[in-house]
Write a structure and sequence with these properties.
The chain is mostly helical. The chain is built from 24 helices and nine strands. A five-stranded parallel sheet has the order 1-3-2-4-5. Strand 4, helix 18 and strand 5 form a beta-alpha-beta unit.
Length: 569
């Protein structure tokens, strides 16, 4: 078995050499915008590659030579099972190698093979092969909550965010060495797909290359970076437009096989840009509105609950009377005129289901999820404290929201701001509540629907929080035929609105479709889809705009899942 594996090992190395040095790597280099395919192997990586490949090759060759000499020296019969070594021994016999000579050569070959193998092991920490060791540690210390629950700014910190490599944590520095350049994050990234100036892979590699240049070659975990130095990166090595292109959809983190956490690092550098005022003018205006009014529309707080006026019943004010559920509505569902009827639809369905619910009216502020991912940590904490000061005075059993962005921060980040002993709440997305009500027949349907639909999983619902089955349970109860898109569930594709991108100017390359347009095209490719279903107010806006832009208004309709539920009722 070892002999056969050894032959496969040498053949594989031969194929690797041939591919890299004869044909280059056009398929594997993923066309970096600033580098031609294979350029890594012409700018400093050739020597490393040669040591790595030839080192392994000669370890393999001398291993087989060692086995052949050992067999040739005394010919034990059981060694016939060493299918390669036995034939090498036969070859030595053909050349007239005596057993005593084979025994002497075996000693020298053993030492040469041992020194070569141990030298290769010693070389690993100083080579690109360091990820063979680092990846194990990186996966061991990978924090699945790192993007879902971003870190606060440490008390007494000199800066809000990261300016240099010296600001990075040991885990973030280990991420740099762990990258294997596989490009999975690059392929998954919606910003990269739309031609925006961001590749998660390139961001990590550029930071690693910078660390190597500044600190004199490869170093174990770039430990010199932690002692300071001229390792400034934000706005320099990593350009501001690169950082602002991120939608914080977490596709890169999910796709990475070695546990690299791109999103927290990007947000930390964004915090520095926000501190320096280096940001899109539209984004700056929205942040000012959020600071002044508590919502991204710049509307009066008193208008937040105006959408309820079109309902035939009164929704409770949870600040004044207790309810089983506090419905955290969110900015877009409250203020966007094109979405207010959708919000009323949700209210009507909750009412028909007999759900005991209420809202905060003008006591609700923006949840702050995207504010935090933009990098405005101070404003995020201000919004959290304002919301908590109201919420903690109310009597309810759980929170329900229609907005996956609010769902994430209320569920994963708000508990850190609640004093110990004050308790926390169960946070649910509306699809989770309705799925349970339908299955227990507390929400009886009047009829089944016969549409052919496809469902888009919101990033903050599916990838961030694993809520994928509840919407599909509803679809099964409704009787519709759901055709899954190639990218669904945890592998869903981003609409392009997250991470504050909804509030920024377009940065994609001319002529390249936006992430939302690409998603609509993906749905149309399924053929004969009646409805493109979503479960997020922002998604409704993004995808309806995409359908109009693509000129497909007669071919597919964008609806929220709640609209089908009301139709079936």
């Amino acid at each position: 078995i070892l002999d056969i594996a050894g032959v496969g090992f040498l053949v594989g190395l031969g194929m690797m050499m041939l591919r890299r040095w004869r044909f280059g790597l056009p398929q594997l280099d993923y066309a970096r915008p600033d580098r031609k395919p294979g350029e890594y192997y012409r700018t400093g990586y050739v020597k490393d590659d040669q040591i790595f490949l030839w080192g392994l090759f000669w370890i393999g060759v001398t291993g087989f030579a060692l086995e052949g000499l050992r067999i040739s020296a005394d010919r034990p019969l059981f060694e016939i099972w060493s299918v390669v070594g036995w034939q090498i021994a036969n070859l030595f016999d053909v050349f007239g190698l005596a057993p005593t000579t084979a025994s002497q050569l075996h000693l020298y070959t053993w030492w040469f093979h041992a020194i070569l193998a141990l030298a290769f092991i010693a070389y690993i920490p100083y080579s690109k092969a360091i990820h063979m060791l680092v990846d194990i540690a990186n996966l061991l210390f990978h924090d699945e909550m790192s993007s879902k629950r971003l870190p606060a700014v440490p008390e007494g910190a000199a800066s809000m965010g990261y300016q240099s490599l010296a600001d990075c944590t040991w885990k973030e520095l280990m991420d740099l060495d762990a990258c294997t350049k596989c490009g999975r994050c690059h392929v998954a990234c919606p910003a990269q797909a739309s031609g925006a100036p961001l590749s998660p892979r390139d961001l990590i590699l550029e930071l690693r290359e910078h660390a190597e240049q500044v600190f004199g070659g490869r170093s174990w975990l770039h430990e010199e970076a932690r002692r300071g130095g001229n390792g400034e990166v934000t706005g320099g090595v990593i350009r501001a437009e690169t950082l602002w292109a991120c939608t914080t959809c977490m596709a890169c983190v999910e796709a990475c096989p070695v546990g690299i956490e791109h999103v927290p690092l990007i947000v930390q550098m964004r915090r520095k840009l926000v501190e320096d005022g280096t940001m899109d003018s539209n984004l700056q205006a929205v942040l000012e509105k959020l600071s002044r009014y508590g919502n991204s529309f710049g509307q009066s707080e008193r208008l937040r609950g105006r959408w309820t006026q079109g309902l035939p019943f009164k929704i409770k004010d949870v600040r004044k009377e207790p309810a089983e559920y506090l419905w955290f509505v969110g900015d877009y569902a409250s203020y966007d005129p094109s979405l207010q009827e959708l919000t009323r639809t949700t209210g009507r369905v909750f009412h028909k289901a007999g759900l005991d619910f209420g809202i905060l009216y003008d006591g609700e502020k923006n949840s702050g999820n995207d504010v935090r991912r933009v990098g405005e940590e101070g404003l995020f904490e201000n919004l959290v404290h304002k919301n908590l000061s109201v919420i903690q005075k109310c009597k309810f059993k759980g929170i329900v929201t229609t907005d996956p962005h609010s769902y994430n921060t209320l569920k994963n980040e708000y508990p850190e701001f609640i004093p110990p002993g004050n308790g926390a709440w169960q946070v649910s997305h509306y699809t989770e509540i309705l799925a349970s009500l339908l299955e227990t027949r507390q929400l009886p349907l009047a009829r089944r629907l016969s549409y052919r639909v496809t469902y888009h999983d919101p990033c903050y619902l599916a990838r961030y929080n694993g809520v994928m089955e509840a919407p599909r349970r509803i679809l099964r109860a409704l009787g519709v035929e759901c055709v899954e898109m190639p990218r669904s569930g945890e592998s869903t594709f981003c609409c392009g609105a997250g991470g504050g991108r909804l509030w920024m100017s377009d940065t994609r390359s001319p002529g390249v479709a936006t992430p939302s347009e690409q998603r609509i095209e993906e749905a149309l490719a399924l053929g004969n889809i009646d409805i493109f279903l979503v479960a997020c107010p922002k998604d409704v806006t993004m995808y309806r705009d995409a359908v109009k832009t693509l000129g497909n208004e007669g071919r597919i309709v964008v609806k929220d899942l709640i609209e089908l539920v009301e139709e079936a009722l």
